[in-house]
Request: fold
Amino acid sequence: MTYSFNLIDQPWIPCAHPDGCMEELSLRETLARAHDLRGIQGDSPLETASLYRLMLAVIHSVLRGPKTKGAWEELWKAKQFEMSKFDAYFKKWHTRFDLFDKERPFYQIRGETMVEKSALLLTHGMSTANELFEHSMVVETTPIGCGQATRMLLVGQCFGLGGLVHPKFPNLTSAPLLRGVTFLVEGNNLFETLLLNCLQYAKDEPFATLGDDEPTWEMKDPFKTRGKPNGYLDYLTWQNRKILLVPDEKNGNVFIQAMQILRGLDLDKDLEDPFKLYTKKKDGWKHLALTVERSLWRDSHALLKRNDLSNTHPPKSFEWLALLLDETECLKPNQIYRYMALGAGVHFKDAKIFFYRHENMPLPLSYLASEDLVSKLTEASTRTEQVKLSLKRAAFTLARNFISPSAEEKGGRQPDSGDVDKMMSHWNVEAHYWSKLETSFSLLVVELPTNPESSLARWNETLQQTAWDALASAERMAGENTKALKAAVKARGVLAYEFKKLFEELQPQQEVTA
Reply:
């Protein structure tokens, strides 16, 4: 039986309207209505990132640009996509966007001997990659609609885990976006978001062009062996896996239940993604990775550093916007956008994704125009870390004296360090501290450009008050017996002394009583 599901015409992209309502639209309709849509919103942060990546690949493929800042400015001033160019392109490559095309199904390959698995394993979810081979946990008979299968296919190519697919075939490798955090600038509508992330696409921009640069659907041989992409379009549509979806039909509805899969292209690990943050370490350049305990707002200042390229490589989208600010009139320093941070927490040793994250932070464009502002934000971030260390010292004093009231006396009994660590872990003052600061930090980011002195002073007060609150929480958990109260007095003394050193110009805040 002949099946067809063409992404250009069929609805499959989950789009958010300004009122929050969701609607699935086709690729063409999403682009045509982008100026009226709020954005794209997948079922997970990985799906959202994968969808935006495809949209950018399509735009750059159609325009073969923008090659210059002036070309980008013309697109921006139009306030919506001029669809005649897109329609001509879609007509030319229409069959290549069909999920079940007889020769070149979208993001897949025919004519290979591959391993058949449940299609549910496309995205792995929170499971291990090795479940591609040992997948007793997977419900093999769950049918997947064509739209969902397409989104899963994108996620598999962008975020697929490495691991065993079958003993007779080479192991899968990790897909391009799995490592690190993808940062996307967010505008007031989908059109603005897509344009704000449309980088200059010209010779060796945004990175080296090594051959005939084409998206995978235009290539004669998408799986021709290469470690580095031919260029930006090749990279945006990189095929980490060889996949073929197996369609079936029930009651007139086409669905996917199985797939065939094999190792695809291996990407050079040293290649820097234009939408990630990299910092210089002793062993080379490293991407910013997601961790359970560290929210991404704590690294906001590093995203904005433009004049420290020997130590920090911010996302190229931020650098591109800074150039547009300098040399065009369509963006103004007083404008405030936002940025999305999308990614997964991964245990590569265990080949396991254990959490997803989608964070948003304000992005006043003034930071991209003023290094002095970035320095002030860096100062605030540094002070935040310093207060955290002061809080830890105070919590250590509380735990130490609670376990052994004579610990600070001459010849007094010293508590076991393991017991102190366990008690501090139980109180978890750091988690209390960080969890209360994110909203205030977002406010600081917005207010700092217009009121630097007052906003920094207010931030210093917030840091102190939050630390006192965190310590008070630990004191309450310690109890109200004499031993606990004496330990609390000493801990407060330590925190007050630390604040006196950190904030010479301010009187330390008094602790909050329970």
User: Anything to note?
Assistant: Residues 373-502 form a domain with the Topoisomerase I; Chain A, domain 4 fold (CATH 1.10.132.100). The chain has a mean pLDDT of 90.
